[in-house]
Amino acid sequence: MKDVRIDLFSGDMVISAPNRSSRPTDIKPIMDEEEVYDVYDLNCPFCRGNEEYAAEKTFEISNGSEWVCRSIYNKYPIIDESCEGIKGNHEVMIDTYRHNGSFYNMSEKEFNNMFLMYKNRYKKYIDDEDILYVSIFKNFLKKAGASLIHPHSQIISMSMVPKDVRNEVNILKEYYKNENESLYKSTIEKELSLNERVVYNGNKFIVLVPYASMYSNEVRVVCKDSTKFENLENDNLNELAYIFKNLFEKIYKICGYMPFNLCMHSHPKNIDCSDLFNLHFHVIPRKYSFGGFEISNGIYVSSTLPEDFAKKIIFK
């Protein structure tokens, strides 16, 4: 059965058409193959022991005498002091010293260190008076935009609020104006009552497969209240580490070694939305590409029912 769904947070229109996944094809998929790597690679600038080949360090977490994760300036920044019309910085955050690490095999402790690093670098930039937004994201495998295999994330500060974030804020304000209630609060309560797309329900965070998404099999990790990322407690970061370890184990079991993007949407500065906006993470699979229908019409087709996918990756 096909139906049309609207993502209330973005306004995207999605046609749910699960039968599309059964189409015959004689075209081989272009996918990154899972390979076996060593813990250390002599030619990798992100590996522990190869620091001389990397840019200047900005932060690190050590285990005794050796670092386990660290951040460095990006040698090929999107935004830096040479940009006209926008101020900001661009860093690479090395998720783990292990060259053969990935979200699919990292330990809970490794995730915990990574989120501590995320928070440290985020707080460093969001406190800058010239900065209005800080973006944290991750590209995994070539199809998702990664250029190096060593597990890493990126952080970019900017003196502007991106269009997609401004669009969401406007939607949140309009919903509150009409309903006198937060869209996040309403959505979380509805999802918990239906219990069809909830993957995990914790103390601070809930994990959902969204009702409508332009990306088939997208997962969202949503803070249950309006706490800002820089104000999360260590217990909250521990919960995020637990969520990501278990979530990606489930995704690997169902989808395999899948390329993906991770995007963190945090509170913008200088926009009055603190009580309406909830910190959230998008886990966006890059298994499928958009076709002519999506590109020409701005209407997206999902070949997977969110309810079905949620059942496959649920965890406690």
Automatic annotation (TrEMBL):
Ribonucleoprotein as a keyword of this entry, yes or no, is no
Q: Name one GO molecular function term.
A: nucleotidyltransferase activity
Entries under SUPFAM superfamilies matching the protein: HIT-like
Spell out where the chain crosses the membrane: none
Claim: Transferase is one of the keywords in the record? yes
All copies of the DUF4921 domain together span: 123-314
Locate the coiled-coil region(s) and give their ranges.
Answer: none
Q: Which InterPro entries match?
A: ADP-glucose_phosphorylase, DUF4921, GalP_UDPtransf1, HIT-like_sf
Please state what the protein is called. Galactose-1-phosphate uridylyltransferase
Q: Which gene encodes it?
A: galT_1
